[in-house]
Amino acid sequence: MTDAESLGWWGVPIAVLGGALRGGTPFLLVSAGECLTEKSGKTNLGLEGVLLIGAMTAYAVSVNTGNPWAGLLAAGMAGMVLGFIHAVLAQQPKVNDIAAGIAMIIFGSGLAFFFGKAYIQPVAEQLPGIEFGWWSSHPAIRSALRICPLFFFGVAVVFLMQWFFESTRWGLFVRAVGDKPDAARAMGISVWGVRTCSIMAGSFLAGLAGAYLSLYYPGSWTEKISGGQGMIAVALVIFARWNPVGCLWASLLFGGAQALGPALQSVGISSYYYLFNASPYILTLLVMVLTCTNKKQLAGQPGALGASS
Fold this sequence. Notes:
Elements lengths: L2 H4 L4 H29 L7 H19 L2 H23 L6 H20 L13 E2 L7 H6 L1 E2 L1 H19 L1 H11 L1 H6 L4 H25 L13 H11 L4 H22 L7 H5 L1 H12 L19
Antiparallel strand pairs: 1-2
Helix pairs in contact: 2-7, 2-10, 2-11, 2-12, 3-4, 3-5, 3-10, 3-11, 4-5, 4-10, 7-8, 7-12, 8-10, 11-14
């Protein structure tokens, strides 16, 4: 009998809560990064490749140095490098964001798979977790309430990003470039510079999300570790209506959905196990269907999003 089973049906909401916090953290980081990128008027579909290169880089550095925090920083820097390449490609005349993003998925995943072959077997030092379930003697509750510091970092990032967009001059520049690039250019704002910085900062966060996957949850390096989360992040941002704090709630929803299948299996419901496991992807599809509209743009959507440079 597993820990969740010993709690009976009480184990289901506890498992979903734990999944929302653990599984929602990478969604939170990568969607916050994509929100910043899209606010500047560009879409970075290549974040899937950034997640993979971040996961591999973090794991490799942790294996070689024994320091997971060094791996975390290295993952963010690797993400910024790929972000810069994407920014240069996506801002060439008549280049489509989606095509550039697909190219970056292939490039980033190819690099990660090539250099990551040597790190599939070695065991890396993992990021620590904070024990918020210390008050309970039950292992399932203690496990559900063991939270990585990166979750709190992600929460801080989305609230700071909200303040940044609403109350700072640089945030105004990002919104101006994302809504009316020609008007921003006439005001003397460097559209290329603002978008490049936004894409690089967003890719830095996606690199951290990759590090979380390999150094905390699930805590290993494999070639399938990202599970499409980089592409799901695009749907998350649309679902959140390009609101950073909205990305937090959307990420917790998707993280909880990801944990639903294993939670129900723990109480004997296994008939639709694979369907429940597919719930994040079903949610993504629903978001895309529900946001299809004949209107010119959705509420909150940056005006220049999807336009070629």
